[in-house]
Design goal:
With 218 residues, this protein is an all-alpha fold. It is built from nine helices and no strands. It has helices at residues 12-46, 49-64, 67-77, 87-113, 116-124, 129-144, 146-159, 171-182, 185-217. Helix 1 (12-46) crosses helix 7 (146-159) and helix 4 crosses helix 6. The longest helix is centred in the N-terminal third of the chain and has 35 residues, at 12-46. It is flat.
Length: 218
């Protein structure tokens, strides 16, 4: 049985819906991972010991276990304690927190690389420690980690396929549904791969634009 790409237009609406879900969950999880990475970095570096230690445990769990297991725990496990999240929300939280931990490591390193004189100068101008972090130190640290965080976001896009296991109709699951109706796996998996590649290229283009703007503003 040869390849037959002529069947694709009949199921293109299913695939495009999956593309929309993939983009939506990637953008939402990316925003959560970026904001969470900053919060986690500040906690790890500046929070009291009694707050830092539980955070270290959470960090170990998210870095030391598979993302797939984390999605199962969030979607299926939380139900047992009365927290019933929609699959889409569970996917965003799972992906967002998983990559927030990795972003936190990058941001911590970047914060420590900022000249201590920046903090001291801000304090002498009357800013509190929190204000100095928010207005002086963290903006400089974030600018320095845009490239590696951008790479994490591209990895997040690829890992978004895992949310299909909890029922989110993203691109991979949509392709599988089309395959279930046509028994044509090769054609639809190639189409899904092409869409992932195009989204990936768009994300790389945005990342380069952001990096260029940052380099000009320095």
């Amino acid at each position: 049985m040869g390849l037959d790409f002529s069947i694709i237009p009949d199921y293109l609406d299913i695939i495009l819906l999956g593309v929309a879900w993939t983009i939506g969950i990637t953008l939402a999880a990316a925003a959560l991972s970026f904001a969470g990475g900053i919060v986690f970095a500040v906690i790890a570096l500046y929070a009291p010991w009694i707050i830092r230690q539980p955070f270290r445990l959470v960090e170990f769990v998210f870095m030391g276990t598979p993302l797939l297991l984390q999605l199962f725990l969030i979607y299926f496990g939380l139900v047992q304690i009365g927290i019933d999240l929609p699959a889409f929300v569970a996917g965003i939280i799972g992906l967002g927190l998983h990559f927030a931990v990795y972003n936190s490591e990058l941001i911590q390193t970047s914060i420590l690389a900022v000249d201590r004189g920046q903090m001291e100068a801000a304090r002498t101008l009357g800013l509190s420690r929190g204000q100095a972090l928010r207005k002086v130190v963290i903006p400089q640290a974030v600018r320095a980690v845009v490239p590696p965080i951008g790479n994490n976001m591209i990895a997040l896009l690829k890992d978004s396929a895992l949310v299909s296991v909890i029922g989110v109709s993203e691109l991979t699951l949509s392709a599988q549904r089309a395959i279930g109706k046509t028994y044509r796996p090769f054609e639809f998996y190639i189409l899904a791969a092409a869409f992932y590649y195009v989204i990936n290229l768009c994300m790389e283009w945005v990342q380069r634009k952001i990096e260029r703007r940052i380099s000009i503003s320095r």
